[in-house]
Design brief:
33% helix, Rossmann fold, 22% strand, alpha/beta, 8 strands, 229 residues, 8-stranded mixed sheet
Length: 229
């Protein structure tokens, strides 16, 4: 059964005080379905400038988002997460950045093809998602056919999708789903990214979760995918 979040008529339902509190950051925060109003017009209507457009799904505490935006002021960056309190904490952090080359969505990654138009994104980042380790919860994992089809659709031809995870089983799941869908060339697949490719772009940035995993001796699994079009 496909998650209803993937359906066009999906509407967010919640009663959380952080939803209203996020409104104070409306300069750069979009909530629920608000982001879908800009499908196909992000650079023109939202950023109001030309530039490569990137999406990070699961921005969490924002370690990667903040560092990437500072390092790439000419890129247009959209961060996304679904947790309310976490989103509010990150919005406060983002508000202190001088260069507002970003927008933040309190929304669901499952909605990607309703948030962005076909061939609109130059790249996607997806780092250390919830692995939903219990078998009865595996269906909640984002990396599966409906999402991969949506991600492929919104990426430009040849655009890159970067993934990192600490979880062995989820990494194996990802490999199966990616190969089965056949929409991406796998440019890199590593079971120990830091040891095998220490100079790679994916090793330049360390998220908060990643720092903890590395301290625990957990190997970082990674994929670099290229949209086949």
């Amino acid at each position: 059964m496909v998650d209803h979040s993937f359906k066009e008529d999906f509407k967010y339902k919640h009663d959380n005080p952080y939803h209203d509190r996020l409104a104070q950051f409306s300069e750069f925060v979009l909530r629920d379905n608000e982001s879908e109003e800009h499908k196909g017009r992000w650079n023109q209507d939202v950023f109001k400038r030309d530039g490569k457009l990137f999406l990070e799904i699961g921005s969490g505490a924002g370690h990667f988002m903040v560092d990437y935006c500072v390092d790439h002021p000419d890129h247009n960056f959209v961060g996304l997460d679904y947790r309310f309190k976490r989103s509010f904490a990150l919005a406060k952090k983002l508000s202190s950045l001088e260069n507002k080359n970003f927008r933040y969505l309190r929304a669901k990654g499952e909605r990607i093809e309703f948030q962005f138009a076909e061939n609109e994104l130059d790249g996607i980042f997806y780092f250390f998602p919830d692995p939903w380790p219990k078998s009865r919860h595996n269906k909640k994992r984002l990396i599966q056919e409906p999402f991969l089809k949506g991600a492929h659709k919104v990426l430009k031809p040849g655009a890159i999708f970067y993934i990192k995870t600490d979880h062995d089983d989820y990494a194996e799941w990802m490999a199966r789903e990616i190969k089965q869908c056949g929409l991406f060339d796998i440019l890199l697949e590593s079971k120990d990214m830091r040891a095998e490719h220490p100079d790679h772009f994916l090793c330049k940035y360390t998220t908060g979760f990643e720092r903890i995993f590395l301290q625990q001796g957990i190997k970082i699994k990674a994929f670099v995918l290229q949209a086949k079009k």
